[in-house]
Design a protein that fits this description.
Blueprint (H helix, E strand, L loop, with lengths): L2 E5 L2 E4 L4 E8 L2 E12 L6 E7 L4 E3 L7 E6 L4 E6 L8 E11 L4 E6 L3 E6 L1
Parallel strand pairs: 2-11
Antiparallel strand pairs: 1-3, 3-8, 4-5, 4-9, 5-6, 7-8, 9-10, 9-11
Length: 121
């Protein structure tokens, strides 16, 4: 069984910072990419940032220059450093992983349960 466990969410004031972590566990064979998505109530789940196994990053325009995604391949962990937070960043943040696992290996996309980020005005 593959699990993604997120941590680091919380409540901060405008301009504050948070650091989100996501660790993947299980019989993981390889990871193509990991990333973060967010969803506010009544809204669509949108991409925040992704990083591939080779270190290529992609960011939503709304977070460029404020958020930084990084990875620790040895620990199957992805991090999201969020600075200069704004009220519009308020959402549930979900970790995502595109990976193969098991034997024989099977390719699939996995989601964490989400962690709440709230930015007060």
């Amino acid at each position: 069984q593959v699990q993604l466990v997120e941590s680091g969410g919380g409540l901060v004031h405008t301009g504050g910072s948070l650091r989100l972590s996501c660790a993947a566990s299980g019989r993981i064979r390889s990871i193509n990419a990991m990333g973060w998505y967010r969803q506010a109530p009544g809204k669509q789940r949108d991409l925040v940032a992704t990083i591939t196994s080779s270190g290529i990053t992609n960011y939503a325009d709304s977070v460029k220059g404020r958020f930084t995604i990084s990875r620790d391949s040895a620990k199957n962990t992805v991090l999201l450093q969020m600075n200069s937070l704004k009220p519009e960043d308020t959402a549930v943040y979900y970790c995502n992983a595109d990976l193969s696992a098991g034997w024989p290996a099977r390719w699939n996309t996995y989601w964490g349960q989400g962690t709440q980020v709230t930015v007060s005005s």
